[in-house]
Amino acid sequence: MPASRARGLLYALAGAAIGAAAARAAYAAFTRNRPADLSGRWTRKNHRGEPITLLEGPAFVAGSSAAAALAPGLTPRVRAAALLAGAGSGALGAYDDLYGTTSSKGFKGHLSALGRGEVTSGAVKILGIGATGLGAAALVSQGPADTLVNGATIAGTANLANLFDLRPGRAIKVALLTGGPLLAASLLRGSPAAAALAAVPLGAAAALLPDDLGERAMLGDAGANALGALLGLAAVTQLGRPGRYVLLGTVVALTAAAEKISFTKVIAGNPVLHRIDMLGRRPADAV
């Protein structure tokens, strides 16, 4: 094995391990003294109407931030970009988790409300994640055009990941299925820094997957936004310009489609996607 690939594998394992250990430790600390009835501001009803905790999200943000700060192989600018993208979008997502309302829904709904002079929590999150995405992109991009494209991609993937967080484990599965090839490509290309950056969110997310699938917790906006932003950052730092344009176009198309169609219905209607979606979950009719 070439030295660069071996180093990349070592960095990736370290980043994933730090993220996983920190996320599990944070989740244990956050939930240690929670009431048995799951009452409180960090509790939501899931798709079954059962109460579960949103503290998985802050645990993911803590784990991935620790890994971004400590994982070997990252340059100072990439490390700072990862902390800004992950922690920034996570904090804005947590704000929406705690103070969000349902008066406006979706990207279009929040922006329409903003046009009427109504500042919703969702609009604050959209604008804030856009700003943190541009800030993170500015640290890893060359020139204004690249910064705009990369910033839009990071913000777009943060929002898109949240659109998948509607069923147990779905957002994390999507992250693993998209981030896994990104990690593999960085290892094959012998890019240790890219491998470490891609491994950071994957390790933290995988460590929390059992509780997500078990319907004991969910990422919420905090975790899903941070997960998507970190994967978007990993993608834009590795892909060439054509690849980044294709990625941004795909993200925009899927976000626009989500305004008209239900991802849940599309997944349920496709046997392969449905099987992946149900893998590890309780049966749909279980109580």
Distinctive features:
287 residues; two-stranded antiparallel ribbon; 12 helices; 74% helix; globular; single chain; mainly alpha
**Nearest-integer average pLDDT:** 88
Regions with little confidence, pLDDT below 50 for 5+ residues: none
Radius of gyration: 18 Å
Structural class: mainly alpha
Largest sheet features: 2 strands, antiparallel
Count the beta strands.
Answer: 2
Note the beta-strand portion.
Answer: under 5%
- Encode the helix/strand succession as letters: HEEHHHHHHHHHHH
Helix content estimate: over 70%
Q: End-to-end distance, in Å?
A: 50 Å
User: Per the principal axes of the C-alpha atoms, what is the gross shape?
Assistant: globular
Order of strands, main sheet, comes to 1-2
Written description of the protein model:
The protein is mainly alpha-helical and 287 residues long. It is built from twelve helices and two strands, in the order H-E-E-H-H-H-H-H-H-H-H-H-H-H. It has helices spanning 3-31, 56-70, 76-99, 106-115, 121-140, 144-163, 170-188, 192-213, 220-238, 241-258, 263-269, 271-278, and strands at residues 43-45, 51-53. Strands 1-2 form a two-stranded antiparallel ribbon. Strand 1 (43-45) and strand 2 (51-53) form a beta hairpin. The longest helix is centred in the first third of the chain and has 29 residues, at 3-31. The model has no long low-confidence stretch (mean pLDDT 88).
